[in-house]
Amino acid sequence: MPDLGSMMRYTTFTGVVVASFLCLIAALIWTGWMLIPAALFIFLSFLGLHDVRQPHHSILRNYPVLGHMRFLFEGIRPEIRQYLIESDQDEEPFSRDARSLVYQRAKGQEDKRPFGTRQRVYDAGYAWVTHSVIPIHIKDTDFRVKIGGDACKQPYDASLYNISAMSFGSLSANAIEALNTGAKLGGFAHDTGEGSVSRYHKAGGGDLIYQVASGYFGCRAKDGSFDPEKFKETASLDQIKMIELKLSQGAKPGHGGMLPASKISPEIAEARGIPMGEDCISPAAHSAFSTPIEMMQFIGELRDLSGGKPVGFKLCIGHRREFMCMVKAMLETGIAPDFIVVDGTEGGTGAAPVEFSNHIGMPLIEGLTFVHNTLRGAGLRGQVKIGAAGKIISAFDIARALALGADWCNSARGFMFAIGCIQAQACHTNHCPVGVATQDPIRQRALDVGSKSQRVARFHDNTLQALGEMTGAAGLEHPGDFMPQHMMVRLGDKEMVEGNEAYPYLPEGFLLNTQEDVGADYRKRWARASAKSFAPPPC
Questions:
Q1: Of 15, 44, 71, which residue sits at a domain end?
Q2: Regarding beta strands 207-212 and 189-191, do their DSSP bridges make them parallel or antiparallel, or are they unpaired?
């Protein structure tokens, strides 16, 4: 049953309808002057009726009449915007600008802005692309990367920009279907998140990346362990193009979770393969393997069970030695993943302890650079593709990630904005005002699948067009040609360096070649890493 808060969203609409009748009665029995307020309230009543039925604005569908206040404030935003940016030095200016950019691209509106950059160009860490005086015009911006190594029988031709992991249960049914339908329209992939494949993923018909996490949803035995036969059945779906083993996510690495029995609906239970009426535990660690070698063998098993689809893993870098243990296990077993997705600690989530989201895990740029150079040092970079995730919204975000070693990028935040997320930060309350992160059937009704799926596809297409323009401005033929030297990074006042000085590519095979005198920090950790155990060696 919908809660009282859900019903109160229509209080204003109900109030103007009641006021219309009261004013009409007053006009009949008291004075004709009451026809003036009656006309106003009748107009607002019809406006509210239109709001509830229109498919384009989730706020208006959930808050008829009252929701127009938001658009009124948006209308005067240019006059107060600079004050807001100057008075708020934290994340909010970024959030507002990013959200505005996504909304404009998703709606097909003009995304050009006057008066130059709003970035603080003299701050340390500010980065920019070096451009060419002979730019190139790129017509086809449907940029692709082939994912799948020698052991892969069904390689996948992926877009350079895809939807990152967000589960059904965290997101509403309408949100999942809108995202996946948009992925189908735009020809890119949608990561299921650890909640497995729901009927709403299937309804969209778009390409899926099936994420297997520690709860093994969709491939779970009754005791919570991994069930090979159930995995084989799920992974055999034509819609599933890749398998992603989740080790950790940037927003809360090393943190498990629990879905209380009260929040488990029949649809969630169906998707995850869990019983109703019982709390559902997602452990912090996997039970299917405990050593680096066992992890690689498990990846090989998943590849075989899926019929040779690309299999990889996702993680936020923590102990760097532990990642090197995985790489040593790749060399020892001869089993390498087809891809690795590096998630930065700046990645988002519906709910996480503040300490985890702020202070655990490596940021994307540093994590991506480390993974890229470690694979180069072990001679494996050519076999393993790298995806990057963590606050990647704009074409520049993609270009920078590609320059630092990624082959493609994933985004959750950008595509959530595209379906109407306003960052109300009510994800964990079930009271999302736009129907994105809620299981309330009335609230999620506000999110129209047909309208929002078009916005998802449009945002993807316009972002890749912007990436093509940026690539051409740098004098390059393809975004994959971006290298660190195409970036500049400000270190401080009057001091800047090329990207290849700040984030250099270390030589191929340097970890295996004892003659190489580079990457001392990498080599020290490599010497302490073991393929047989994640545990640190004795001092």
A1: 71
A2: parallel
pLDDT reported for residue 4: 46
Q: What is the DSSP letter of 261?
A: G
* Residue whose C-alpha is closest to residue 419's, from 76, 34, 51, 107: 107
The CA–CA distances, whole Å, from 294 to 290, 381, 495 equal 6, 21, 47
What is the CATH classification number for the domain harbouring 216? 3.20.20.70
Asked if residues 210 and 271 have their Cβ atoms less than 8 Å apart, the reply is: no
319 and 206 in one domain? yes
Of 349, 372, 224, nearest in space to 286 by CA: 224
Alpha-carbon distance values, 46 to 20, 35, 50 (Å): 11, 16, 6
Rounded distance, CA 26 to CA 24, Å? 5
SS3 state at 211: strand
Q: Who contacts 59 (Cβ-Cβ below 8 Å, separation ≥6)?
A: 67, 70, 420, 422, 433, 434, 446
**What ranges in 54-91 are assigned the alpha helix state H?**
58-62, 68-75, 77-87
Domain carrying residue 445: 144-502
pLDDT tens for 165-204 read 999 988 999 999 999 999 999 999 999 999 999 999 999 9
- Predicted TM-score (pTM) of this structure: 0.86
Residue 36 lies in a domain: yes
Task: Please give the Cα distance from 64 to 72 (Å, whole number).
Answer: 14
